[in-house]
Amino acid sequence: MLLQVIDEAKSLSKLAFTTKYSHPWLLVETPKSRSSGSSGSDIISPSTSKEMPPLKAAVATFLTPTVLMGRADEFVLFPLVKSDRNPWTERILVGRARNNDIILPIQSVSKVQCYFTKKGKQYQLTACQASNPVRFDGTVLAPETGTADAVDGSQLVLGTICAHFLESATLHYLLSGKPG
């Protein structure tokens, strides 16, 4: 999915891109090559079914157009949208289980790690009862009561997975290199 969206970002204006993609995104980091101590679990992008190598450590990358374009093979892009896989109409579930809206099949990610809800134009992240904590911009969210406003550029750590919450305008800039 990332390569397709890169092509679109380069060919579309920011307005056309953000009109087409009015939702935010989760940009998930993954290493370029498989470590020898791999657990055997991989991130699978549902849009391409392409297996990605597992993460070694939960250290987020500072994103710039140069970094992202130079290391595009180290990221998986997920639209933050509802699927028909879970029964909660107001929740966008993130976790390892196949009935989540965003599936991260890595052992360090819980079956249902967290979920996003939309309040007006604002998205909120809530941690679920999970064996691994959810860190949001460096703060551990308390299960079920830990909610944070997801703002453009926020960093999430789910188990050993690092992800970035990005609005479409920011994603357009990062993929096209064209400001404003």
Could you name the key traits of this structure?
180 residues, alpha+beta, Tumour Suppressor Smad4, six-stranded antiparallel β-sheet, globular
Descriptive report:
This protein has 180 residues and is an alpha+beta fold. It has one domain: Tumour Suppressor Smad4. Helices cover 18% and strands 29% of the residues. The chain contains 4 helices and 13 strands. It has a 6-stranded antiparallel sheet. The protein has a 5-stranded mixed sheet with strand order 6-5-7-8-11, with no helix packed on it. Strand 7 (114-119) and strand 8 (122-127) form a beta hairpin. Helix 1 crosses helix 4. The longest helix has 10 residues, at 2-11. The protein is globular and about 40 Å long. The model is unreliable at 31-57 (pLDDT under 50).
Summarize the entry for a quick read:
The protein has helices at about 1-10, 15-20, 65-70, 170-175, and strands spanning about 25-30, 45, 50, 75-80, 90-95, 100-105, 115-120, 120-125, 135, 140, 145-150, 155-160, 160-165. By secondary structure, the protein is α+β, with helices and mostly antiparallel strands. The radius of gyration is 15 Å and the shape is globular.
Taken from the alpha-carbon principal axes, the silhouette is globular
- N-to-C span: 23 Å
Derived from helix and strand composition plus strand pairing, the structural class reads: alpha+beta
Spatial arrangement of strands, main beta sheet: 4-1-13-12-9-10
Q: Number of helical segments? A: 4
Helix content range: 10-25%
Query: Mind summarizing the main beta sheet?
Result: 6 strands, antiparallel
Output the helix-strand order.
HHEEEHEEEEEEEEEEH
Question: CATH top level?
Answer: Mainly Beta
Radius of gyration, in Å, reads 15 Å
Poorly predicted segments: 31-57
What is the average per-residue confidence, as pLDDT, rounded to a whole number? 83
Tally of extended strands? 13
Q: What CATH architecture label applies? A: Sandwich
CATH topology: Tumour Suppressor Smad4
| Beta-strand proportion | 25-35%
Number of domains: 1
